Amino acid sequence: MIKSLLLFLYVTVTCKLKNTVDKLSFKNQKDAFPLHYHSEFCISLIKKGVELINIKEKQFVGQANDITITHPYELHANPMYSETNLLSFDTLYVSDALIREILPLGKTFHFDNRVIRDLKLNELFEKIMITSTEVEKPLLEEFVVKLSSYSELTQEPKISKPLDNWEDIETYIEQHIKENISLDQLASIANLNKYSFSRKFKDTTGITPVHYTLMKKVFHCKETITKQCTLTEKAYEYNFTDISHFSKAFKKFVGVRPTTYQQKFLP
């Protein structure tokens, strides 16, 4: 079970200011998601099936017509509910910066309950999913304000650092994200041998350093994919073994293969 959440990442990663939201639709999803995070608020409307969300020692259960939420940079996993469960859902990825633009005094959300059932919210959500980016802002503002009634508004997220020299570790990973990141180098930054570093990293974050750096690499690469780019070149640019290795890692954390993401979800 995860021993701490990675909300501390707010202090090292800045959300990009966006006037629109990213939208993804998943149909008949049957694979579990390992521990991962999103750089935005991940707000999903369940259409069919059951979604499980494991956050620290808690498990939340979303069913059809529920809205589920995770915070930016919050480690969570989505295990399979059952072998026969087929999960369909739509997701809005909304940046913390955009939330602060809409809410009073530049505040942001903090949710204790991650499952909400509100038919008016569902209606607004579905309108945003099908509305063009040029006219979705008023709908999004109405959605965010109504959603805020289910949250605690806060100026700063609750954060904690899992390791000493965490900022230095994060900086090193960011600067070498396209390389094969060395466990020995990360351990030396933390002033630990690699065995102690791996154990302490896993104990305090719930995942291994290798899992964490792979996750960071995938999401960093995802932000650089365009409709025109060559995915094989992206795979080698980010030091994946080949396109198959890249595709499997991408689907593991994002939920779709990079070809699907490029063809269906990019403007």
Describe this structure in words.
With 267 residues, the protein is an alpha+beta fold. It folds into two domains: 6-154, Jelly Rolls, CATH 2.60.120; 166-264, Arc Repressor Mutant, subunit A (Orthogonal Bundle), CATH 1.10.10.60. The chain has helices at residues 96-102, 119-130, 137-148, 166-175, 183-189, 194-205, 209-222, 231-237, 243-254, 258-264, and strands spanning 22-29, 33-36, 41-48, 51-55, 58-62, 67-70, 76-78, 87-94, 108-110, 115-116, 152-154. The chain has a five-stranded antiparallel sheet. The longest helix has 14 residues, at 209-222. The chain starts with 21 loop residues before the first strand and ends with a helix. The relative contact order is 0.15.
Helix/strand layout:
Elements: E1 22-29, E2 33-36, E3 41-48, E4 51-55, E5 58-62, E6 67-70, E7 76-78, E8 87-94, H1 96-102, E9 108-110, E10 115-116, H2 119-130, H3 137-148, E11 152-154, H4 166-175, H5 183-189, H6 194-205, H7 209-222, H8 231-237, H9 243-254, H10 258-264
Antiparallel strand pairs: 1-8, 2-7, 3-6, 3-8, 4-5, 6-10, 9-11
Helix pairs in contact: 2-3, 5-6, 7-9, 8-9
Keyword list:
267 residues; alpha+beta; Arc Repressor Mutant, subunit A; 2 domains; 10 helices; 37% helix
CATH class of the largest domain: Mainly Beta
Give the proportion of residues in helices.
25-40%
How far apart, in Å, are the first and last alpha carbons? 38 Å
What is the gyration radius calculated from CA atoms?
Answer: 18 Å
* CATH architecture level-2 label of the largest domain: Sandwich
Mean pLDDT across the residues is 87
Order of helices and strands: EEEEEEEEHEEHHEHHHHHHH
Structural class: alpha+beta
Stated plainly, the CATH topology of the largest domain is called Jelly Rolls
| The CATH homologous superfamily of the largest domain | Regulatory protein AraC
